[in-house]
Amino acid sequence: MKRAYYILFLVFMNYTGTTQTILPPDSLLSYTPQGFPYLLHTKQLGTQPQPGQIVRFRAQMRNGDMIYYTMPYQDGDASIIDIPEVETDIAWRSPALQLLSQMVEGDSGTTFLRIDTLSTKPRNLENTDWLAMDIHCIEILDAAVWAARKQQQLAGQRQIGIMMDSVITAYKRKATREQMDLQSTRSRLRYLMVREGSGVFPLPGRQVRVHYAAYLRSGQLIDSSLERNEPFTFTLGNEEVIDGWDEGVQLLREGSEAIFFIPARLAYGERGAPPLVPPHAEMIYYIKLIKAL
Fold it and tell me: For the segment 240-259, what is each residue's pLDDT rounded down to a tens digit?
């Protein structure tokens, strides 16, 4: 499946305090095969991506120091692009792909696009003739390595799904629930520690990054960052999530995995969250604290 779309976004460059993108002197620029001017901010040792390989990268769009768009992550903390097998593939016209083809792992660089070459001119860019696309090349992978990694991720998701089905079934029955090693807080938030991490505890007011899977008491899965392979980041104790999350995640060391049984008053309350969460619903979450930032 092709991921080399027409990417028109820009990342943050080391040109700060400007209200428009300024093209550097030609003596500093190189040019991609399609003629896009670019700068490499770093020059790591390594091999440039080859046809058939997969590149993980990050990118944003900006004019001057104003960021318009950050490319959505498709694999954890990165976007994904396929290197086409043949250069006649229409995907090669992508400026992101053009720049990535000149990079190795760890490189960052900027390419520049003339506004008048875009089929649709973005709003509020009347003051500039150029847009910049800054990209960080994170990782270059052979297709076989990429496929094996995705299979491993799917296997991990299935194992968590099997575990959650078993735990929820036991939790719904009083006799088996009493045999579970459940811990409880003063607010009556209950949790089961699946794996104790060795990292630090997160602090209120700081960001945390988690993976999660959300279930109703019936066992219905209603949301999962694992399926998207897109960790969720939020500020702890800042009312950006339900109360049960703010309280529960503080109990976890970095690297920990736990299952939280969150009463409705610490979740979505008497109104629920239509259409997926009914009123007065107890929520059950698998949560892994990936990083305390």
Answer: 999 999 999 999 999 999 99
For residue 167, count CB atoms less than 10 angstroms from its CB and return exposed for 0-12, middle for 13-18, buried for 19 or more. buried
Q: Is 100 helix (H, G, I), strand (E, B) or coil?
A: helix
Q: How far apart are CA 4 and CA 20, in angstroms?
A: 27
Instruction: Give the model confidence (pLDDT) of 255-274 as tens digits.
Output: 999 999 999 999 999 999 99
**pLDDT at 5 > cutoff 60:** no
**Pairwise CA distance, residues 204 & 226, whole Å:** 24
For residues 104 and 124, is the Cβ–Cβ distance under 8 A? no
How far apart are the C-alpha atoms of 105 and 283, rounded to whole Å? 41
Confidence of residue 17 (pLDDT cuts 50, 70, 90): very low
Amino acid at 135: I
Q: Which helix (H) or strand (E) holds 144?
A: helix 143-172
The encoded tokens of residue 130 equal: 């150029």
CA distances to 56, 237, 254 from 288, in Å: 23, 17, 8
Q: Does 275 sit behind a cis peptide bond, omega within 30 degrees of 0 on the bond before it? A: yes
Q: Give pTM, 2 decimals.
A: 0.71
Q: Output the CA–CA distances (angstroms, integers) from residue 187 to 89, 224, 258, 276, in the order listed.
A: 58, 25, 17, 25
Residue 224 phi, psi dihedral angles, 5° rounding? -155, 120
